Amino acid sequence: GQQLNQSPQSMFIQEGEDVSMNCTSSSIFNTWLWYKQDPGEGPVLLIALYKAGELTSNGRLTAQFGITRKDSFLNISASIPSDVGIYFCAGSRNTGNQFYFGTGTSLTVIP
Amino acid sequence: NAGVTQTPKFQVLKTGQSMTLQCAQDMNHNSMYWYRQDPGMGLRLIYYSASEGTTDKGEVPNGYNVSRLNKREFSLRLESAAPSQTSVYFCASSESPSTDTQYFGPGTRLTVL
């Protein structure tokens, strides 16, 4: 099956720092999603991207749909303790098709 | 408005035992999904139901069966559990197959000994 590679696998940062993570695929996707998962909970959708080159923000979060359509990026500015969790990317080739999920980036924010 | 609920939250089975994981949503969504999450891997789709009365295989369907009981409920059955099925199982729902926003339940942590 299709696997998306996320990096880094884990991050330990100081509160207030900015965070960058990315997701790459061997296939072209037409939709990219970014989710956050808190411990013991299901993933929650943060941002959805639909067009190559698109840049979308949600508060302190900004995500970009890579121009090659094989990658996507998530940035978090001025991190806070509640940003702790696992961030997943997901990609879909066509509307209504199955989403493939990345391996996750675990974020720890040190107060 | 509870969203997506799953029962049980935790379960331990012996190899060969059977069980059914229950999922219900109260958002009047048409589509429902079952995923499994294993350490170091992303969520993988087991089965999905695009609408009431239909079910389709996802990426990893072997060893599982599903039933879309009605619009609200979508169950996942393990007929003869194997240790390889030890995982966290998530149910999700969306308005339609073409809607990207999937709402996830809290998960069921299953251990097969």
Briefly, what is this?
The complex is a heterodimer of chains A (111) and B (113). By secondary structure, chain A is mainly beta. Chain A is built from no helices and 11 strands.
Walk me through this protein's architecture.
The complex is a heterodimer of chains A (111) and B (113). With 111 residues, chain A is mainly beta. Chain A is built from no helices and eleven strands. In chain A, the strands form two sheets. In chain A, strands 2, 4, 5, 9, 10 and 11 form a six-stranded mixed sheet that branches. In chain A, strands 1-3-8-7-6 form a five-stranded antiparallel sheet, with no helix packed on it. The mean pLDDT of chain A is 92. The mean pLDDT of chain B is 93. Chain B has strands spanning 4-7, 10-13, 19-25, 31-37, 43-49, 56-57, 65-68, 74-78, 87-94, 103-104, 108-112. In chain B, the strands form two sheets. In chain B, strands 2, 4, 5, 6, 9, 10 and 11 form a seven-stranded mixed sheet that branches. A four-stranded antiparallel sheet of chain B has the order 1-3-8-7, with no helix packed on it. Chain B is built from no helices and eleven strands. Chain B starts with a strand and ends with a strand. Chain B is mostly beta strands and 113 residues long. Classes of the chains: A mainly beta (111), B mainly beta (113). Chain A binds chain B through residues 1-4, 31, 33, 40-45, 48, 88, 90, 92, 95-96, 98-104, and chain B through 4, 35, 40-45, 48, 50, 58-60, 90, 92, 96-98, 100-102, 104-107.
What is the radius of gyration of chain A?
13 Å
Going by helix content, strand content and strand pairing, the class of chain B is mainly beta
Q: Which class best fits the helix and strand makeup of chain A?
A: mainly beta
Number of helices of chain B: 0
Number of helices, where a helix is a run of at least 4 consecutive DSSP H or I residues of chain A: 0
- List the secondary-structure elements of chain A in sequence, H or E: EEEEEEEEEEE
Largest interface: A-B, 25 and 25 residues
Number of strands of chain B: 11
Major pleated sheet of chain B: 7 strands, mixed
- Spell the H/E element sequence of chain B: EEEEEEEEEEE
The average pLDDT value of chain A, as a whole number, equals: 92
| Beta-strand content estimate of chain B | over 45%
The percent of residues in helical segments of chain A reads under 10%
Main sheet summary of chain A: 6 strands, mixed
End-to-end separation of chain A: 39 Å
Mean pLDDT of chain B: 93
Strand content of chain A: over 45%
Number of strands of chain A: 11
Task: Give unreliable regions of chain B as ranges.
Answer: none
Helix coverage percent of chain B: under 10%
